[in-house]
Design brief:
The protein is of the alpha+beta class and 272 residues long. Helix content is 47%, strand content 23%. It contains ten helices and nine strands. It is globular, with a radius of gyration of 21 Å.
Length: 272
């Protein structure tokens, strides 16, 4: 097996993201210890799971602890997949604390229904970059993924309560983001500031403003970055003052939204 990349986070115990490219070969029976949400990109296999054989190609798969999995290739070649793995304690924490569920939901099917399969595959693929991003962006992405899998795949779907008129919460989150713009902010810290669950805070904020806390923070940082660049600050100085990982990270974000690099922007405004 060739493990192309694996991500673990020091502040996020029990969660692992992996990209694997390997030979499509048989795998003996394996007792599963963790929750595993994956997308198979290349390769087709026959899986024996929960007492039945299932032929799967490129698709989303859902496995849970306490089950036995056995797999055999249908054709020779390569097998490529992306896997997001949660240890039971970590997943339980998300379900109870973040999503406000009483217990971990059961996933009755290995392969979700067609209407959900494409959505979940797209969501996991799109999250590859965001899971490697800043802490707040990663937290929002994981929250979105976990809630989507529970909503589409669980035996007892996620109950989404109606939102109230929570203008006070939105105002409090905005104040917090403005006051901590240079820091590595997490969704957990924002939720603790509001004394509410991360799941609820994110839903209220996006329902009110149309953007997530991370998207709002990015816009705020870019606004401040342009002000500092107009003052003649270097890319390195701006990145350091506004909570970007480094000047490369600042340049990447700046070019995505402004269509030119910070250095080019500074040169343009100096010519005016």
């Amino acid at each position: 097996m060739t493990l192309l990349r694996e991500w673990v986070w020091s502040d996020l115990s029990g969660v692992t993201l992996s990209i694997v490219n390997t030979k499509n070969q048989s795998y003996p029976k394996k007792y599963l210890l963790n929750y595993n949400f994956g997308v198979r990109l290349v390769g087709q296999r026959t899986n024996f799971y929960r007492g039945e054989y299932l032929v799967t190609g490129p698709s989303t798969s859902v496995y849970q602890p306490g089950e036995v999995l056995e797999a055999h290739p249908i054709s020779l070649g390569r097998l490529s997949y992306i896997s997001l793995c949660f240890e039971p304690e970590a997943f339980s924490h998300y379900v109870r604390t973040v999503l406000e569920q009483d217990r971990v939901s059961v996933f009755p099917q290995m392969v979700p229904a067609d209407h959900a399969n494409w959505r979940l595959s797209r969501l996991l693929l799109d999250s590859l970059k965001t899971l490697q991003g800043a802490t707040l962006e990663r937290d929002e992405s994981l929250l979105k993924l976990v809630s989507a899998y529970i909503f589409y795949c669980a035996e007892k779907p996620l109950h989404v309560p109606k939102l109230g008129q929570e203008h006070r919460i939105v105002s409090s989150v905005k104040d917090y983001l403005h006051s901590h713009v240079s820091q590595n902010i997490s969704l957990k810290l924002i939720a603790q500031h509001c004394q509410l669950s991360p799941w609820y805070v994110q839903r209220v904020f996006k329902a009110e403003l149309g953007v997530s806390p991370h998207e709002y923070l990015t816009a705020l940082r870019l606004h401040k970055a342009k002000f500092l660049l107009r003052q003649g600050k270097s890319t390195r100085q701006v990145a350091s003052q506004l909570g970007f990982h480094d000047r490369s990270h600042l340049t990447q974000v700046f070019k995505r939204f402004e269509y030119l690099s910070p250095a080019a922007y500074r040169a343009v405004v100096r010519q005016r």
